Amino acid sequence: MKLDELKLQTKYLDSVDSKFYQLLDATALDNAFLISYNKKLCDEIGLDYNECETNEFINFLNGKKVLEGSKPYSMVYAGHQFGHFVPQLGDGRAINLGSIGKWHLQTKGSGLTNYSRQGDGRAVLRSSIREYIISEAMHALNIPTTRALAIIGSGHNVYRNPFQAEKGAVVLRASDSWIRIGTFEYFARSKDAKQNITALVDFVILENYKHLKDDENKYEKFFYELVDKTALLLAKWQTYGFMHGVMNTDNMSASGVTIDYGPFSFMDYFDKHCICNDTDIEGRYSYNNQPYIAKWNLFVLADCLSIIADFEKLKNYLETFFSQHEREYLELMNKRLGLDITLSGDKNIDLIIRLLKALESSKIDYNLFFYKLSQLENLDDFSSILDNCIYPLIMKEWLQEYKQVLLLDPRTQNQRCESMQKVNPKYIIKNYMLEEAIQKAQEDDFTLVNDLLNIAQNPFDEHKDFQRYAKATPKEFANLKLSCSS
């Protein structure tokens, strides 16, 4: 399909009052150029690759070209930021273009909106590259997420440091929803709140929970399903050691996917108290706290929905969150470890708990451990794992316990490893890799951006030219904290 054949829809504008959005055009970047486009997402949308290499496509990302059916707009929302309520936030640098199929397209870095507050409406090259690549890495790991279709750079100066200019960029993002818990917070506190929150929830149900549209308890059931989806999402984050960094209510999706990549990180060596955001002084959004914050955010949503739904039912269902989360987490961890929970049951739970302690004490790269475990040819030689531990003693003891549990499993080691290799990738996109790509990009070399995109999308492949990325994160870059403007 050609670019001009894409027909977008803007149903949100027909569903809610105009006071909840701003119609506007993007403010184009100077001297924009294409950095990369995502062929896999092109396939899902039905867009021809050669269309992405035209000036018209660059103009589309840069806001100079508006497709048929599109009415560019930014949305208002509120949110609890680090636990403190902010009554008005919104798309301060994002413009919604419309939807095609399930994908709602949005450009990030497109200039000032009514919701920019003290911001400049721009995105810098480094943060745009990080989001472009990591969203595809998450998708390849089967972690629900927004996606990214393309990224453009420019000669446009943007200042995050008052004394140092950076180059502006725009990333074209795609999601099945851009509605956030913070959106509900804004609508629930508006004049005519019941009418407005009803319109918002009805829109979300039609977009993401269509099977509920005629259910007499659709508002309660929408909440129940989002609780389920979020419990699974957080289980996947925790299993792969992913840290979001800024789990404010305005960064939590109504469709249960990962949105808004800022100071994110995949765990280097395991530390349950790890904080990846350098502004998170108290550790509110530390790795260990993420499930608790997710539940807290869902409670905020329940409070918003109490205008139109039975709050006691919502609150009672929310109490299932941790049991669901734990069940999903244990199932995923069993798969990563090659354990059959039907054979060893509670022993597996104890083994996983002890593993986390062994990982923490041994200082081994978290995801490298699982990859090496899935490559073991026999259970008499654990040197490939122990050689990657700074302090191997406790890990050595754990591996012997692991070996004893596997004796109950009738599968061969090859059969077990074959199943483990489906969930334990060779490559995890780490921040030091992204930093290398960013440094090259600052010098107008975008080859590593595209190479990392390929690795991110195919993390189980060999990628022989990039074997160094399959090793542990260099110590000097391990578990670093990043800023929200990263």
Description:
The protein is of the alpha+beta class and 486 residues long. It has 18 helices and 13 strands. Strand 4 (79-81) and strand 5 form a beta hairpin. The radius of gyration is 23 Å and the shape is globular. The mean pLDDT is 96.
The gross shape turns out to be globular
Provide the helix percentage: 40-55%
| Overall average pLDDT | 96
Portion of residues in beta strands equals 5-15%
| Structure summary, number of beta strands | 13
Structural class: alpha+beta
Termini separation:
35 Å
Give a short synopsis of this structure.
The protein is 42% helix and 12% strand.
List the helices and strands and how they pair.
Blueprint: H1 11-15, E1 21-23, E2 33-37, H2 39-45, H3 55-61, E3 73-75, E4 79-81, E5 84-86, E6 94-100, E7 103-108, E8 123-124, H4 125-140, E9 147-153, E10 157-161, E11 164-175, H5 181-188, H6 193-208, H7 218-240, E12 242-243, E13 265-266, H8 290-305, H9 311-318, H10 321-337, H11 341-344, H12 346-362, H13 366-374, H14 383-386, H15 393-406, H16 413-420, H17 431-442, H18 447-457
Antiparallel strand pairs: 1-3, 2-9, 4-5, 6-7, 7-11, 8-11, 9-11, 10-11, 12-13
Question: Which key features would you list for this structure?
Answer:
globular; alpha+beta; 486 residues; 18 helices; single chain; 42% helix; two-stranded antiparallel sheet
